[in-house]
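During the reporting period, we have paired protein sequences with backbone structure tokens. One record among many follows, to show the layout:
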Amino acid sequence: MTIMGFSALVNTMLFAPEILFEKDQIARFTIFEKIIFGFFYLITHFLVIVFGQRLFKGMPPIFIATEKGFSYEPAGISTGWVLWEDVAEVKESEVFFGSGVNNGPKLVPVIGIKLINPEQYSVSYAPLLQQVIKIGQKFHNYQTEGVGDILIKPSDLGDQYENVLALFKSKTKFYAITNV
């Protein structure tokens, strides 16, 4: 939002400078000041485009798995690496997701992941985001019968959905057996 305000300010400076400056001030600007202004003008509008694309297109989800754990970043926000040994249960489920003017939320299939200690992964978030995550997890846990600490949409995984589901189930079984 700040970048939009700054963009409005630099556009006002360029297209209607008399609103912000007196005529003699405008006449006294040096070439160096005009070049610096042009530089900031370009940077500002580049950032407006980048943030606008990110806002309206969304970030592609990122899923990475290794022998130690996995990282899932659906919208540019991630808990970081989740260790396999911290996964208590994995279950396919459905949750209500999205809304529209005429059709409301729809049931969407998800891979529900229950963590042994979900609070340890939310400490990296800002305090306000921690509260939003806590409320979201309660809602998701209600819909998935307790397996909603992390939800992965199959559409985010594309062709790799079955492979990722099998990986989760095998890793969860392995750690469930070794942690007993």
Q: What stands out?
A: Confidence is low (pLDDT under 50) at residues 175-180.
